[in-house]
Each structure stands twice: as C-alpha cells, then as structure tokens.
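Key result, reporting period 2: structure in, sequence out.
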C-alpha cells in the first residue's frame, strides 16, 4: 500500500463524522499523520507538501480533479471513464497525464459533486446536471447508459462576469454594436441569442444584462444557475429541479416561467430554451413582459426560427402559421454568435424581426460579420458591416 493510501486509511479511521469538521482541522490531522509516518520512513519536505495537498483534495475536495478545477487557464474538464481525462486550455484539447485509481474513486467524486447541488444520480437515473461551488457547470452520465465508464464533464467559467467591454476588447463585436444593443436592452426590446455549442451564448446573455436599469425587478430562470447578473438589487434567481428517489416532483423551466409571471417581473431572463418551454417564453413576451432575454441552439438567425417552431410543436399542436405569428410578434431582435475555426467567438449577425409577411417571418439584417481573404493559415480575418438601420423604433421612442 502506498504512503498516501496508508495515511488516508488512518485518517478516515480516526475522524469523527458525526460532527462537522472544519477544513483547517482536517489539514492539521493530515499534517500530524504525515509527520508521524515520516519518522518511520523518511519523506522529503517537498513530498510531504505534495502528499498533504493530495490527501486534503481526496478527503475534502474532488481528488485529482481539484487541481484542474482551480486552474484558471482550463475551461473544460472531460473525464471519459477512469483512465481517460482530457482538458481544454486556450481553445485546444489535450490529454491529462493523471488518472483515477479506480472506478469507485471516480464515482465518489461524482456523488460528492451531485450531492452538493442537491441532485441524485444512480443507475436508475443515470444522467444529471449540477454545478460546483465556483459556478462551473457539471454534466454526469453513468453506466449502463455510458459504455466506457462514468462520464463527467465540467465547464468552467471566469471568476468575474465577462462584461460587454471585455467582449469588445476581445474583438467579439464592435463598440458601435455594443452601444446599439445596450440601447435596445434599455428600451425593452425582446432579444433572442442563438449560436452553436461553445459559441458563448450564456456569457453574451450575462453581458447584456448589465444594460438593464437597476430599478427594475428581474427574474432569471435556468436549468443550472450560471448567470451572474450584477447591479440589480431586485433580482430573483430560479433553478429547475429533477425528480428524485425521495419523492420530490420535478420543477421544469415551464413551471418556473408560469410561476415567475405571478412574481411581478419587469423582465424575465431565461438561460436557454430547449423544448416545450418555448411556448411559455413566447407567451410571456407577447403579454406585456417586454425586455425579456433568452438563448437557444441554432446555426443562424433563420435556422433559430425553425428551431423555435419545432420547440413549440413539442408542447402544443397548433397550425404553423399561428406559431410563426407568435414568434414574429414576440421576438424583436436575433443576435447570432459563432465560434470560428481559429477558436475566436464573434457576433456573426444582429437581425431585426419585421413581422410575418406573405407566409414567412421577415428578418432584416442590421450588422453582419463578413470574412475576407486571408493569407495567414489558421487565423480568420473579417469585419462587421452595417447592412441597414433599425426600422421598428417604437420602443426606443417610448423609452425616450
């Protein structure tokens, strides 16, 4: 048995789990045991420090993953079973050189994460979404659904909310576009953000919330709370709940949207729509809750409209014409984001919804990112071009 496992076994045997033990107390117990063991078998000073850190991570934190969770340069941690751990750093995926000692240890880490989010995952309910204490998004898939062992994916976010100024600095959009969107948010235009996986939809949504006037009541609704809305004192944050073995009934996005309408919101911000809850979002936008914001997966603004139509049909069988009219009257602006081949994230299009005309929802592009010929391999070169002016200015005029 290794020194680490031997010391851990002694510590776990001595600890009193009937009371809450502070982190500092656990560190003291670990250090005392390491000193005791080093008298029997010499352990160098640098090895003692490393051993103390690893034992603390094993007992109190996420074992070998804690080191990755604390590394600000890592944006994604992908655990594909016991022996395959991959990380994303600076947009590039690489294999990590460490592995879990056993399937049981990996399952212990998963259960610890899930329990802290008040969720349950097991063979009968093998898929769950959760989050870490630092706000990182977690997804777990267990056998028998996952064939190559327990799968754990952690997406880390910046400690501080990314502002629209930061996005301008990173060349994700221009200062002019940022100011334009800021005016639209203040004037309570309903804005829908679309984009593919990893295009930065949640980050962009969070940045837009900074333009919401501080005297408004805002309700955020998410599957797993990720938004960091700043500067809004009257803020309510709601999160869905899965069913569990203790008999708790599931609370869905649809339930939360319906409940939020009775909470006197000035605005509703929905992290992402994926299914039948789209009906309730459109209904809210169409019944006086202007200034609502949300996101969804789509390959373009036009494609997002088709996706929204499909989502509505998931929860209600109504004629397509009625659905399209609902979408056209509910959403004022589409903002489409993309992650380009050089890993940069950009606003690819801002388009205005002009209404339902001749059996089709009319989109009017205002800004569009256009690539230009580039002789440098790997980098994407282009510029934003203004394609038109905002036509529906009623909300801007009403907002003064």
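The corresponding designed sequence is given below.
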């Amino acid at each position: 048995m290794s020194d680490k496992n031997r010391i851990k076994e002694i510590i776990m045997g001595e600890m009193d789990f009937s009371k809450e033990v502070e982190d500092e107390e656990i560190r003291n117990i670990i250090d005392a045991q390491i000193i005791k063991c080093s008298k029997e078998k010499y352990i160098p000073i640098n090895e003692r420090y490393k051993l103390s850190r690893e034992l603390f991570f094993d007992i109190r934190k996420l074992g070998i993953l804690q080191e990755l969770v604390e590394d600000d340069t890592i944006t994604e941690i992908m655990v594909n079973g016991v022996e395959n751990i991959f990380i994303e750093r600076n947009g590039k995926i690489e294999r990590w050189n460490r592995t879990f000692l056993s399937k049981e240890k990996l399952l212990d880490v998963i259960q610890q994460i899930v329990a802290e989010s008040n969720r349950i995952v097991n063979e009968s309910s093998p898929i769950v979404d959760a989050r870490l204490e630092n706000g990182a998004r977690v997804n777990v898939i267990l056998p028998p659904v996952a064939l190559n062992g327990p799968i754990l994916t952690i997406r880390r976010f910046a400690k501080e909310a990314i502002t629209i100024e930061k996005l301008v600095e990173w060349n994700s959009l221009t200062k002019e576009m940022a100011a334009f969107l800021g005016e639209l948010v203040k004037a309570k235009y309903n804005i829908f953000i679309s984009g593919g996986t990893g295009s930065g939809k949640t980050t962009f949504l969070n940045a837009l919330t900074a333009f919401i006037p501080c005297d408004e009541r805002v309700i955020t609704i998410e599957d797993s709370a990720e938004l960091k809305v700043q500067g809004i004192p009257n803020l309510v944050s709601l999160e869905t709940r899965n069913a569990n073995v203790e008999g708790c009934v599931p609370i869905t996005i649809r339930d939360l949207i319906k409940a939020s309408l009775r909470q006197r919101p000035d605005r509703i911000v929905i992290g992402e729509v994926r299914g039948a809850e789209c009906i309730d979002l459109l209904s809210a936008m169409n019944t006086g809750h202007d200034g609502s914001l949300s996101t969804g997966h789509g390959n373009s603004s036009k494609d997002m409209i088709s996706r929204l139509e499909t989502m509505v049909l998931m929860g209600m069988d109504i004629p397509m014409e009625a659905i399209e009219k609902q979408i056209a009257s509910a959403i004022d602006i589409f903002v489409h984001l993309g992650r380009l081949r050089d890993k940069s994230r950009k606003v690819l299009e801002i388009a205005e919804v002009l209404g339902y005309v001749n059996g089709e929802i009319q989109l009017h592009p205002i800004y569009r990112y256009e690539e230009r010929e580039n002789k440098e391999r790997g980098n994407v070169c282009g510029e934003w071009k203004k394609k038109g002016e905002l036509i529906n200015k009623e909300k801007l005029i009403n907002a003064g």
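Residues 23-40 form the longest helix (18 residues). The mean pLDDT is 84. This case is discussed further under Risks and Mitigation.
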